[in-house]
């Protein structure tokens, strides 16, 4: 039997694309924005605004502006930083399709990132910003006849099945004694995701008939979150945890990820900690980064403190006393970084 036929309306709009390179200085002035030269795409004139200190904690910010007078345009864009000397390029920061008017700053069009994310792209004390713009013209509607497929492609549900298999314990062949709490799992799944588990269960020295494995140095909730990531590639739901408890979970989970060599989990936890820095938490996070030798997280904390201009709040936070007593040398890094930034 032939598939049913249907008629549908299709909305299409012609698009014009272009790219502009902008070379702002690394630090043209505290909180002063710099505008690029005008450039034309899709029949409109545009400019990029660069804010060297335009975000939370002194983050860099970029913004697309429409310059054409008495006009309105719909466009999307994506920013990235380039090092023209080495060919290195940062990840793209996309901005979805938005409406633009001249003289109106659309904050939804702004992207921001910490300075430490882009410093490797500086050359001769200058940055190169690439802005790729897609201008969408007024849409046109047309009728289309098409045969409806019997089958529609559905998203993968592999992680969901694996997550249920972990939760339902079906076919589990190893039990972990995590500080007195029994946690069951499947050795083959753990071995696929962790070199440590693979060596333990299937290596030359592995105990293949191992029935119960003692885990003394990881909390039960953290170990369950580690297994959940191994099975589903997803971080734990933090909605039921407060802000401080969520950061604490990420710290413990990062340590467990390093212990079991689940690299992707460690990078995701470190990135989450970088994005959640605040004056209340940055001191304790910096102490943790120094103790665990996490260079990217340490750099992010130092730059956050140096750029936030809220050193008194940082000193008054709960974690500062521990930072001062356990890692006093790192405070010199903060002072040196702050001194360099204020000389620029």
TrEMBL record:
One of its GO terms (biological process) is protein ubiquitination. Residues 172-239 form the BTB domain. Pfam families: BACK_BPM_SPOP (PF24570), BTB (PF00651). Residues 1-13 have a biased composition (Polar residues). Pathway: Protein modification; protein ubiquitination. SMART domains: BTB. It comes from the Eukaryota. SUPFAM superfamilies: POZ domain (SSF54695), TRAF domain-like (SSF49599). Gene3D superfamilies: 1.25.40.420, Apoptosis, Tumor Necrosis Factor Receptor Associated Protein 2, Chain A (2.60.210.10), Potassium Channel Kv1.1, Chain A (3.30.710.10). Transmembrane segments: none annotated. Residues 1-34 are annotated as: Disordered. Belongs to the Tdpoz family. This is BTB domain-containing protein. The lineage of its organism: Eukaryota, Viridiplantae, Streptophyta, Embryophyta, Tracheophyta.
């Amino acid at each position: 039997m032939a598939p049913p036929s249907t008629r549908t309306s299709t909305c299409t709009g012609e698009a014009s694309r272009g790219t502009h390179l902008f070379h702002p200085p690394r630090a043209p002035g505290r909180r002063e924005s710099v505008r690029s030269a005008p450039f034309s795409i899709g029949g409109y004139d545009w400019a990029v605004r660069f804010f060297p200190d335009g975000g939370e904690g002194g983050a860099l910010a970029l913004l697309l502006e429409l310059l054409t007078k008495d006009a309105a345009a719909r466009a999307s864009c994506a920013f990235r930083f380039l090092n023209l000397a080495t060919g290195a390029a940062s990840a793209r920061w996309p901005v979805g399709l938005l409406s633009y008017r001249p003289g109106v700053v659309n904050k939804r069009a702004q992207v921001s990132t910490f300075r430490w994310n882009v410093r490797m792209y500086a050359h001769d004390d200058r940055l190169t910003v690439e802005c790729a713009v897609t201008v969408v013209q007024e849409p046109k509607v047309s009728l289309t006849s098409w045969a409806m497929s019997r089958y529609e492609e559905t998203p993968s549900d592999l992680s969901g099945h694996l997550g249920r298999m972990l939760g339902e314990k079906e076919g589990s062949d190893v039990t972990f004694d995590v500080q007195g709490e029994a946690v069951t799992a499947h050795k083959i799944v753990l071995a696929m995701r962790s070199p440590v588990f693979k060596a333990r269960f299937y290596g030359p020295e592995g105990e293949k008939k191992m029935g119960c494995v003692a885990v003394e140095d990881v909390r039960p909730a953290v170990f369950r979150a580690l297994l959940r990531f191994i099975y589903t590639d997803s971080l734990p739901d933090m909605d039921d945890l407060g802000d401080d408890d969520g950061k604490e979970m990420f710290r413990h989970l990062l340590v467990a990820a390093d212990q079991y060599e689940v690299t992707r989990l460690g990078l995701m936890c470190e990135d989450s900690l970088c994005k959640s820095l605040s004056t209340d938490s940055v001191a304790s996070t910096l102490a943790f980064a120094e103790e665990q030798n996490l260079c990217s997280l340490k750099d992010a904390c130092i730059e956050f403190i140096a750029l936030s201009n809220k050193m008194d709040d940082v000193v008054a936070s709960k974690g500062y006393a521990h930072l001062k007593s356990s890692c006093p040398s790192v405070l010199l890094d903060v002072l040196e970084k702050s001194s360099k930034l204020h000389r620029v």
